[in-house]
Write a structure and sequence with these properties.
This protein has one domain: Butyryl-CoA Dehydrogenase, subunit A, domain 2, CATH 2.40.110. It is built from no helices and 7 strands. It has strands spanning about 5, 25, 30-35, 40, 50-55, 65-70, 90-95. It is globular. The site of flavin-adenine dinucleotide (FAD) has 13 residues, from strand 1 and strand 4.
Length: about 100
Amino acid sequence: EAMFSYALSEPDAGSDAAGMKTRAVRDGDFWVLNGVKRWITNAGVSEYYTVMAVTDPDKRSRGISAFVVEKSDEGVSFGAPEKKLGIKGSPTREV
Ligand SMILES: Cc1cc2nc3c(=O)[nH]c(=O)nc-3n(C[C@H](O)[C@H](O)[C@H](O)COP(=O)(O)OP(=O)(O)OC[C@H]3O[C@@H](n4cnc5c(N)ncnc54)[C@H](O)[C@@H]3O)c2cc1C
């Protein structure tokens, strides 16, 4: 009943997804994520986001983990809708 979006791409990490800068750091029972995801389909509409973040920088591409982030989680915000030439059936925004 609620949609998910997939948040992998970043301003400087498109095809080279392993170059992502978003970090996830454990803080007690929680994980704190910091970073910007760009070109996210249905951002702002989806209730849930599968967010990729670096948890172990030394392991490079093998040190990336997936987190479920909820739209209502503290600190989550969205950019303005991108003005696209096509694919207008869904909004594309930063997260
Ligand atoms: C409408 C839209 C919706 C999107 N939705 C999502 C989404 O929901 N979630 C998400 O995570 N991302 C999303 N994206 C981002 C998309 O996945 C990236 O745009 C894609 O990964 C390419 O990255 P880039 O745009 O940075 O291009 P770049 O990585 O800069 O690539 C530019 C060009 O260079 C080529 N290139 C790159 N590296 C090499 C190489 N090593 N050798 C040869 N050629 C190379 C590429 O093939 C491409 O032609 C969306 C993008 C668009 C346009």
